[in-house]
Every structure is written in structure tokens, then in C-alpha cells.
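[step 3/7] fold_predict: job queued, chain A
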Amino acid sequence: MITDLQENEAFSKILNNLAETLDITEKQHQDVVNRYQAVGDWLAQEDSLLSPYKPEITPQGSFLIGTMIKAVNEGGELDIDAVCQLKGKQANWTQFDVKKIVGDRLKDHGTYKKMIDEEGRRCWTLHYAESLRFHMDILPALVAQGYDILLEKSFSERELERANELLISITDNTLPNYWTSTDPSHWPSSNPFGYAIWFLEQASLEVRKSMEAVATVQPVPNYTKNKLPLQQAVQLLKRHRDIMFNGDEHRPISIIITTLAARAYQKETDVTMALLNIVAQMSTLVEERYVGGRIEKWIPNPVNPAENFADKWAEYPQKEENFYRWLTQVKHDVREAIDQRGLHLIEKAMERPFGQRAVTEAFSKMGNQARQSRENGQQKMAAGTGILGSVGATVKNHNFYGKSEE
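[step 4/7] structure written:
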């Protein structure tokens, strides 16, 4: 383990730069917000069948919790998950009806009709112009009365157990009652906003008393360049997964990585220690439960313990095998990078597991930061690693003749 404060802080500077490089840009963030708000406005217009139910498009998943990363390939698309919230429905509408009416309204729009993909199991997907490079999965859903008020409030630690009040009823065209059930309480459910509140509380570095307010979820999350250590750790783990499996359908899914990382996180204040602790603890947090006469691996949803995020492992053993293979590899790759001495060797050790383009960009950014700090007389070098940062021995500036300035 890293025990030297200088080395720890210095390596965290590298990981901070890499996570920032992997993150979506402020422009991409705003493009997504503008597009999903425009979809919501279209669904809610007065001539829409959905208008009485005040449809609103809100983000869910990694966009909501601040763990989005760019695609591995430069021209790759971002995958944006969104919810179409409906505050009610006609009494005779089934899951089929709700989903079809949302889809039909999207198809009534000249532009969206050209962008819409084939109907998915739960969602409608819009593919945006190549210049924007993202697609949006829109999940039709019914929310409870007063949902907006509940969503906007701050939860105390004791009230986090009330996150089940943020359950939404969704549609699923593979279920037998998809065509017949008009009672939303019999429909499948999800809780993306309760999960987001839980994750953001796990990520928070603030120390609170038991009854003080904790996380809130904003329908339009603010763009922030300075992510918390847990958010950065999740971004780094997801990129390692993407590089290792290159689109394999049996790769570890993001919700498993994110949930286990959040459970393992112990409020470390720098990303290096957070990452080391997370990869060391993840496997111990996979439960085993006796279900249907056999032992199954369980990764429970923190806001719905009856839901198992690893439910596909029994049906597809390759998914479980790939998870543990990935975890072994990421432990090795993180340790190998940390154990290097000298920026060049660290950069080389990180290129294969995290991608050469992103790593090169991160180290280039570090070089620019180092030059600026040196010119300002603020640059220091950590002993042992040779990493430039804010701790260690002061590095003197150099003039154009290669001489240090005294």
C-alpha cells in the first residue's frame, strides 16, 4: 500500500487528470440537457394525449449521478438514460398503451420520427445527429402523487429508508401482463432517483449528524468539473472495463460496478486510496443467497433489496466469470501503475488498461499544469516517483538559456 503522503497525493493528481479526461465536456452535458428538455416540451404540448399527465423528461443513471464517461472510440456515442415521467393515466391504459402513446407522440414530430429506433423492451431510443454523438433511451413511467415535491426535498440519513417512495411504475413488453394490466401497482417498478440519492450520499465527503439533510437529486444536474473521489473511481473502473471487454455483451454492467464501488467506499478523500480500497473490497460485497433450491450470487439494489443486479449471472455464467476476471485484472493494473517510478513508466503502465489516447491527453494536461506551476514558483517534485505536484521539493524555474532562476 502507498504509505508516503507525497507519493499518494502525486499519483492522485494523475488519476484526477485521467478521470477529468474521461468525463464528458460541459458542452456535451448542456447538449444532452437541451435535447431531453426539448423532448419533454414536445410530449407536453396541449395537442398531445399525454398533456393532461404533465410529461417531463428527466435523466437517470450515470448522467444523473455524475459518472458518465466518453466512448472509447473517438467517434463513439454516449448512451443517455432518461425517464418520461407521467403523473397519471387514463384508467383503461395498460403498459402497452402508455408505451405506445409515448412512442406515437414522438413519431408525430417530423425530426424525432427520423431519429427513433426500433422499440426496445422498456424504452424508446432516439439517435441524435453524428455531430452530437449520443442516443437517448426514454423510459415511459408513472410517478406517484406529490412525486416532484418528494424528489426536490433533502433526505436525512434516517429518511433514506423512505427512498422506496420514489418508486416509479414502468413498462416491459416481455411480461405476460404487458397487454392486460391497467393497475400500475402490478407493473414492474424501478427507483432510479432513490438510487441516485443513495449514491450521492455515499459519495459525499461531508460529516453530518444523523438527522441533518443529505443528498438531493436535481432534474437538471449541474455540470461540475471537480468530481468527488467516488465518482472519479467509478469513471476509472468503467473505462478499464470498456477497454478490457471492447463491447462484449457479457462484460460487467455499470450498475454492478457502481453499486459495489459505492458500498466499498470509505470516504477516502483522494482517488488513489479510494480506488485501492474499492478494488480490494468489491468481491467481499457479493452476497450468496439460497434461492429456488440453489445458491445464487446477489448484488442487491440498495433501495430495493429484493432486486438482484446480478440476476443474469445464473442464466449466463460468462457474466459472473467476466466480473471476477475483470476484478483480478483491474487490481493488477492499478497496482502495477502505482508501483512504477518516473512519469514515463507510469504513463506506459496506464496506456493498455485505460486507453492510450485518454492517458496521453491526461499526461499532456499534467505537463501544461506543471509548466504553469513552475513558472509561478509553485512546482514541487515528490520523492521517489518524480511526479510533479504540490508536495515535495521545490522545482526551480528555468529561463530560455536552460539555467535555473535563483
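[step 5/7] annotate
The mean pLDDT is 86.
The chain is about 40% helix and 15% strand.
exit 0
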